[in-house]
Design goal:
alpha+beta; six-stranded antiparallel beta sheet; two-stranded antiparallel ribbon; 10 helices; 10 strands; 30% helix; 32% strand
């Protein structure tokens, strides 16, 4: 009996995880899968696309499908937001990627009128002005996340937060310098399909979803000082949380 696309993908996935198919190795092509499993070409194509959509493989036009060489990013929210990191001058990204190179592209810093949602989340009046930091993060040259931060302009105007380089420890360290140290964070997550513009910005392959995260940073007295809207390439992230009951 012919196997389904999911069954074929499961077999290939196990070969990838066991190391039988190493990073960079070429996966069997559609003709080989058709012959081996007795399936239609469309079934073989869907099996390979399942692995591409999971982030385990990449398609190279005119060449084939290969095991992804890029290692997943383990995002440990508890560790990356700890003041022991950014408070000592380290980037919060160091908790995610260690020594892997991180670059910032498409950086824009400007003032704008807050949307109704952002104003509400920051506890501001409708139409209040915010400082916007819009950027894309790339790890080892591969775009993995876009982020747009919104901060009350009256709080951060004329500070290093309005500069491209915010200095050691980043935005949160500079907020601490302004006596607005963030100590409590709330993150709301959902998974969805990206828009065409979002796909192009993160260089996503077809049918790759994103994880959208809205994070609100608050001071010890509960005052919101930043809202950050992040879009993560779901194919390269593992989300890890440490919860104490």
């Amino acid at each position: 009996m012919a196997e389904t696309a999911r069954e074929i993908a499961n077999e290939l996935r196990e070969r990838i995880r066991s190391g039988s198919l190493a990073p960079g190795a070429r996966l069997p092509g559609e003709p080989a899968l058709v012959k081996q499993h007795g399936v239609a070409k469309e079934t073989a194509r869907r099996a390979l696309m399942l692995l591409v959509n999971e982030g385990l493989a990449v398609r190279r036009k005119g060449s084939g499908t290969y095991v992804r060489e890029f290692q997943p990013i383990r995002r440990v929210a508890n560790a990356r937001l700890s003041p022991s990191g950014w408070g000592s001058g380290r980037s919060i990204w160091s908790a995610d990627v260690g020594d892997r190179p991180v670059t910032v592209t498409d950086l824009q810093v400007y003032e704008a009128e807050a949307s109704d949602d952002v104003a509400r989340m920051l506890g501001l009046q409708a139409g209040a002005t915010v400082v916007v930091r819009d950027r894309v993060y790339a790890v080892e040259g591969e775009p993995v996340q876009s982020a747009i931060s919104y901060l009350p302009a009256d709080l951060v105007r004329d500070s290093a937060i309005t500069q491209e380089d915010t200095g050691p420890g980043g935005v949160y360290a500079r907020l601490a310098d302004l006596d607005a140290k963030p100590v409590h964070f709330v993150e709301e997550l959902r998974s969805r399909m990206p828009s065409t513009e979002e796909s192009e910005r993160l260089h996503l392959t077809d049918s790759t979803p994103v994880v959208e995260i809205y994070r609100t940073a608050m001071t010890g007295d509960g005052k919101p000082v930043e809202v950050n809207r992040m879009l993560l390439n779901a194919g390269v992230y593992v989300m890890e949380y440490h919860i104490t009951g």
